[in-house]
């Protein structure tokens, strides 16, 4: 016996649970399947983002930043502390509590929107008249039939060849979020978002952190001027970053991990650490989906092949988020989930990849949207640039956090904003103004003419827009 639904969503990460909720809002009878379990074995919807990604990493970043502020900067405010220490178990416990709050919040939203939740692994069984049969494997096996299927199974950390994750010595993002004590020496392979964020957490708490990056440039996807500013800040903080390395053998033993590698000069080197975090990208989760049972086409990476509207090769089957092409970002997945639900309803869902913001939650934070200066040069686009440093911003001075800048790139002829790049305090929040402006195809002059509150960090956005026309007022 099976249960029929208008829409079945496989996966309850940001793309999946949002797609399920939006489909239910549009009047469909919706089921969502997810296999994540909490420590007690209960459901833990939210995917990688909520359980071992975005949310827990931000909780640890906040805790470690508080610790560093107390130890290094409270004195500037006249606040004296003695015997400062970090209870790592309490920090991890707080992180776990934050994760559970988000898990429970999603379950509440399912109930509120009348989405039927199934706890287990969803997979294709076979095509049936008017839809597809979906099997749910778990403590309570079930068989469902859906007219429309949305695959939102996310991604997993990519392991180094010959060095699988044991989550004790060689760690993925999962193990990096559950380290029980501050390692004296911490190694990271990969200087992407996860690597830099986790490196920042444990450096603040006292680890000696070394980052090994294969690429010859630091943060190659970031605007070059912004990346250089960030690199200066990280160097000053004590993050040791080596670029252009070739990682060789990785050995895990009782005393830690030994990494053999060649540096940029092709000289043989050895790095010995207590823990090694590997952050070299992610791979789509399609193992166990049983795509072959219905003829669902997958790419060479194991990703589900889709068109611009997230349609697969099968009628009535869609896919969103990390399991398809495009940036592996939670908010990109959410936008695709909403768009697909609306397309199923006959509406015109919309996602513009050029307006998807990127954020690295280090200190200073790094955020950007649109095109970088190097991309514009490569495309031979004529542009004007304007920058404004946080050291000239009154609110940043009051915060005691003046590292970084805001940078605008605008079309030389039309003045339309082509990209905004920020390194500095609260960049993750400031970038939203740029997203809104670019969505409405605003010019830098538009931002320059809008009144911003004083004193605020957002004044730096206005000043950078003014700088495009070389008329900053405070620098």
TrEMBL record:
Q: Name one GO molecular function term.
A: dihydrolipoyl dehydrogenase (NADH) activity
List, alphabetically, the InterPro entries matched.
Class-I_Pyr_Nuc-Dis_Oxidored, FAD/NAD-bd_sf, FAD/NAD-binding_dom, FAD/NAD-linked_Rdtase_dimer_sf, Lipoamide_DH, Pyr_nuc-diS_OxRdtase, Pyr_nucl-diS_OxRdtase_dimer
| Extent of the signal sequence | none
Q: What is its EC number?
A: 1.8.1.4
Which residue numbers delimit the Pyridine nucleotide-disulphide oxidoreductase dimerisation domain?
356-465
The protein's name in its UniProt record: Dihydrolipoyl dehydrogenase
What taxonomic ancestry is recorded?
Answer: Bacteria, Pseudomonadati, Pseudomonadota, Betaproteobacteria, Burkholderiales
Catalysed conversion reaction: N(6)-[(R)-dihydrolipoyl]-L-lysyl-[protein] + NAD(+) = N(6)-[(R)-lipoyl]-L-lysyl-[protein] + NADH + H(+)
Q: Which family does it belong to?
A: Belongs to the class-I pyridine nucleotide-disulfide oxidoreductase family.
Swiss-Prot/TrEMBL cofactor(s): FAD
Its annotated compartments are: Cytoplasm
Q: Which domain of life is it from?
A: Bacteria
Keywords from the named record = Cytoplasm, FAD, Flavoprotein, NAD, Oxidoreductase, Redox-active center
Q: Where is the FAD/NAD(P)-binding domain?
A: 5-337
- EC class of the enzyme, as a word: oxidoreductase
User: Per the annotation, how and in what number is the cofactor bound?
Assistant: Binds 1 FAD per subunit.
Q: What is its main location?
A: cytoplasm
Coiled coil (residue ranges): none
Against NCBIfam families, the record matches this protein to: lipoamide_DH
Q: What species is given as this protein's source? A: Ottowia pentelensis
* Other facts: The active site is a redox-active disulfide bond.
């Amino acid at each position: 016996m099976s249960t029929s639904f208008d829409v079945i969503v496989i996966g309850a990460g940001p793309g999946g649970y949002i797609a399920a909720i939006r489909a239910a809002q549009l009047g469909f009878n919706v089921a969502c399947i997810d296999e994540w379990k909490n420590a007690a074995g209960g459901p833990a919807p939210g995917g990688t983002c909520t359980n071992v990604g975005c949310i827990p990493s931000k909780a640890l970043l906040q805790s470690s930043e508080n610790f560093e502020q107390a130890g290094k900067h409270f004195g500037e405010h006249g606040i004296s502390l003695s015997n400062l220490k970090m209870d790592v178990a309490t920090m991890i416990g707080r992180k776990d509590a934050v994760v559970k709050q988000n898990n429970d919040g999603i379950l509440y939203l399912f109930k509120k929107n009348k989405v039927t939740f199934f706890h287990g692994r969803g997979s294709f069984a076979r095509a049936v008249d008017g839809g597809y049969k979906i099997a749910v494997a778990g403590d309570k096996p079930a068989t469902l039939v859906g007219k429309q299927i949305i695959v939102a199974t996310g991604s997993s950390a990519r392991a180094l060849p010959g060095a699988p994750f044991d989550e004790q010595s060689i760690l993925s993002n999962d193990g990096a979020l559950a380290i029980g004590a501050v390692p004296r020496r911490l190694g990271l392979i990969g200087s992407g978002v996860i690597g830099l964020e986790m490196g920042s957490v444990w450096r603040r708490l006292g680890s000696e952190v070394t980052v090994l990056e294969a690429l010859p440039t630091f943060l190659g996807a970031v605007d070059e001027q912004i990346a250089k500013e960030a690199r200066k800040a990280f160097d000053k903080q004590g993050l040791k970053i080596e670029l252009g390395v070739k990682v060789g053998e990785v050995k895990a033993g009782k005393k830690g991990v030994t990494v053999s590698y060649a540096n940029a000069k092709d000289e043989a080197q050895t790095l010995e650490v207590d823990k090694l975090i590997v952050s070299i990208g992610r791979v789509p989760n399609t193992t166990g989906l049983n795509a072959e049972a219905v003829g669902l086409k997958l790419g060479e990476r194991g990703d589900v092949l889709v068109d611009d509207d997230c349609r697969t090769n099968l009628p009535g089957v869609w896919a969103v988020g990390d399991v398809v092409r495009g940036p592996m970002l939670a908010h990109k997945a959410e936008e695709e989930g909403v768009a697909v639900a609306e397309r199923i309803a006959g509406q015109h869902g919309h996602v513009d990849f050029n307006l998807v913001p990127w954020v690295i939650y280090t200190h200073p934070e790094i955020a950007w949207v649109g095109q970088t200066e190097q991309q514009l040069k490569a495309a031979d686009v004529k542009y004007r640039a304007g920058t404004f440093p946080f050291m000239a911003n009154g609110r940043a001075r009051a915060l005691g956090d003046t590292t970084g800048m805001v940078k605008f790139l605008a079309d030389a002829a039309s003045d339309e904003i082509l990209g905004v790049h920020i390194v500095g305090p609260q960049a993750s929040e400031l970038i939203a103004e740029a997203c809104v402006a670019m969505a409405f195809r605003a010019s830098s002059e538009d931002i320059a003419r809008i009144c911003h509150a004083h004193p605020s960090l957002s004044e730096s956005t206005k000043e950078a827009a003014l700088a495009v026309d070389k008329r900053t007022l405070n620098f």
